Amino acid sequence: MVPVTAPPIPDGAVWISGHQIRAVGPWSEIREIGQVAAGPVTDLGDVAVFPGLINAHCHLDYTAMTGLLTPPREFPDWIKGILTLKSQWTDSEFEASWLLGARQQLQTGTTTVANIETRAHQLAGLRASTPLRVFSFLEMTGIRSGHEPERILAEAMDVLKSLPPNRGGVGLSPHAPYSTSPELLRAVATIARHEGWRVTCHVAESEPEFDMFMYRRGSLFSWLENQRPHGDCGLGSPLQHVHRHGLLDSPLLAVHVNCLWGDDARRLAARGASVVHCPRSHAYFGHPRFQREVLTEAGVPICIGTDSLASTKATREGPPILSLIDELRTLAADDPGLSPRRMLAEVTVNPARALGLKSVMGELRTGALADVLVIPHAGPVATVEEALIQHRGPVTATMIGGRWEWIAPGGIAGFPASVSNP
Ligand SMILES: [Zn+2]
């Protein structure tokens, strides 16, 4: 058992009742609890059990775009490419792609996804089709549509408030500083505060974005010059821009943040923001080096996200799948000094906190949701976090809210065969 907020427990057990964890500890102690002894008890054999992973940034609907866009010379070229691709896709293609991504997440041990949603009219059906806890952040731009911020936000509110409740939640995602107006950012900040919703935004992802806001120059500035008023450029860094327009007023999930300037990191820390790093997407674009040390020193929690497979390269092993474990392996290769324990926190407790769910998910503890992943492990307990990072392909099993939602074929002897693998 790997509780994450406590040392790993050899020969451990977790007592689950309903959708919650009732106790975690050595089997020798847990079996003494009267209600546990009354059963049923499942011996999982030589495995390691972790809390289900939390993906802090994802675009499920782009999963089937794997390999369709080559890494661009200039960042705006990729945006033009995906806009063209999206304009050619049908509703059913987007639906199949979103559901494929959800299945890949489940099969690789992710139980909660902070997802950027672009298919407002399909969203209720999509969310109902997966057991994942999906936190749907509705994407808003406004630059291309030319719609007024009030209208964009009113439409978003209608969509989010009409969604049937499910295991996840909802939030708002103004896409990025360059694709939104300052008025929209301010309106989002006001509504998010009022509704108690989280906000996520791609910020300071690329050098062209940094140059646009800092210096009024570069490829993004030139491309958008006739598409948006540029009066908000040349006033400071992209992070200063989102701060100026209220996005740091409530805890922001700031995605990418590859270009820092001045006291940007301290600004994020002071406002309780989290930064989401997406290792494989970062490598695909060749962005400036992620400034983990600066952010950490300032006290900004870091979370890991998959971003989308439209910006993930294939490897020698084949086409990529949406997997946080694969992101961790890329991260470990990029930064060999990072401890496995710290990386594990970035896919569990840190994103739980960023979503406002500290102690509720991302750890194995009494009272937390019974979301777990299982991998084979017969080695010493000291190597168990490393074993997760080196795990390839589907996990043995994934449980969400006390139900097994994925069991690999031939997964665990004696497992109930009733799980219908979605
Ligand atoms: Zn993204």
How are the elements arranged and paired?
Blueprint: E1 12-17, E2 20-26, H1 27-30, H2 34-37, E3 47-51, E4 53-58, H3 75-88, H4 91-107, E5 110-117, H5 123-128, E6 133-140, H6 149-162, E7 169-174, H7 182-195, E8 198-203, H8 207-215, H9 219-224, H10 238-244, E9 252-256, H11 264-270, E10 274-277, H12 279-285, H13 292-298, E11 302-304, H14 324-334, H15 340-345, H16 349-354, E12 372-376, H17 384-390, E13 397-400, E14 403-407
Helix pairs in contact: 6-7
The structure holds zinc ion.
Strand order of the largest sheet: 4-5-6-7-8-9-10-11
- The strand count comes to 14
CATH superfamily: Metal-dependent hydrolases
* CATH topology (level 3) name: TIM Barrel
Largest sheet: 8 strands, parallel
Query: What's the number of helices?
Result: 17
Please give a structural write-up:
This protein has 17 helices and 14 strands. With 422 residues, the protein is of the alpha/beta class. The chain has a single domain, classed as TIM Barrel (Alpha-Beta Barrel). Strands 4-5-6-7-8-9-10-11 form an 8-stranded parallel β-sheet. A 4-stranded antiparallel β-sheet has the order 3-12-13-14, with no helix packed on it. Strands 1-2 form a two-stranded antiparallel sheet. Helix 5 links the parallel strand 5 and strand 6. Helix 6 runs parallel beside helix 7. The protein binds zinc ion. The site of zinc ion (ZN) has 6 residues, from loops.
Descriptors:
17 helices, single chain, TIM Barrel, binds zinc ion, alpha/beta, four-stranded antiparallel β-sheet, disordered C terminus
Summary of the model, kept short:
By secondary structure, the chain is an alpha/beta fold. It has helices spanning 27-30, 34-37, 75-88, 91-107, 123-128, 149-162, 182-195, 207-215, 219-224, 238-244, 264-270, 279-285, 292-298, 324-334, 340-345, 349-354, 384-390; strands at residues 12-17, 20-26, 47-51, 53-58, 110-117, 133-140, 169-174, 198-203, 252-256, 274-277, 302-304, 372-376, 397-400, 403-407.
